[in-house]
Fold this sequence. Notes:
Layout: H1 3-27, H2 29-36, H3 40-48, H4 51-58, H5 72-79, H6 88-106
Helix pairs in contact: 1-2, 1-3, 1-4, 5-6
Amino acid sequence: MTSEQILAEIREANLSYLMLAQSLVRIDREQALFRLGVSEETADMIGALTSAQMMRIASGNTLLCRFRMDDDIVWSLLTNHGKGAANDGMSRLHASILMAGRHQEAA
């Protein structure tokens, strides 16, 4: 993959992310705040973006979204290393609880 292809993929991901974020904010604000991990002010800005503004923001070369799981425990639970499929649902639930707690700490 060339540098130009990577930049094109970043721009596409940015636009998709902005469109998803705006939809979430407009449909269910509380869920959007939790799922996106953004502040009230950021949600206001995202909800008010025009299509032209989203295109301009998305065209940058920096990825707008980021992984919120910067913890080995959460990654281990999500990838379910060393466990059978029977525990998959429980591991994902545990990871969700950990991430929700971190969202509350950040708020």
